[in-house]
Model the fold of this input.
Amino acid sequence: MTKTSMKLFRESLSRCKKRSDFIDQFYDRFLAASNDIKAKFVKTNFSTQKIKLLKSLEMTVLALEGVPHALHELEERAIRHNRENLDIRPELYDFWRESLLQTVVVCDEQYDKEVEQAWREATNFIVNMMVVRY
Ligand code: HEM
Done:
């Protein structure tokens, strides 16, 4: 990922975070996207889950910059989602990425093609990390 893309992703994420409904909107879309996904979250406490996901996105910014503890944390996250643990099948990650991107369209008033591309690269990085450890 180029420095320019990383900067676009970081700045877009920080604009999205200023909207108090950013993560709510994401989970609304994500849970509606597939019954398999909805089923995974039946016992979840969403008030804490939403904070955890936001933290993971912030961690991604650092991981993309190569900060070792951030990479390590994402790796642990990937293991938590693998077949022995939460068992999140690789194809489900498309829903994750698309739900997030649709939410950014609505939440970032500076959204454009370059911002979209930056989010695609950043989310591909995360998804790839999860999928190879499945
Ligand atoms: C298809 C995609 C995904 C599904 C279906 C999914 C599902 C889940 C489920 C069921 C949990 C457990 C919730 C609970 O405690 O009840 C969870 C936890 C979590 N997920 Fe995901 N997840 C997905 C993708 C991701 C991605 C891409 C990230 C970001 C890197 C992420 C970050 C987290 C975090 C931070 C937690 C909390 C971990 C913990 O408490 O140990 N998830 N996820």
The longest helix spans residues 113-132. The CA atoms of residues 97 and 124 lie 8 Å apart. The pocket of protoporphyrin IX containing FE is lined by residues 37, 40-41, 43-44, 49, 52-53, 56, 77, 80-81, 86, 88, 92-93, 95-96, 126, 130 (CB under 6 Å).
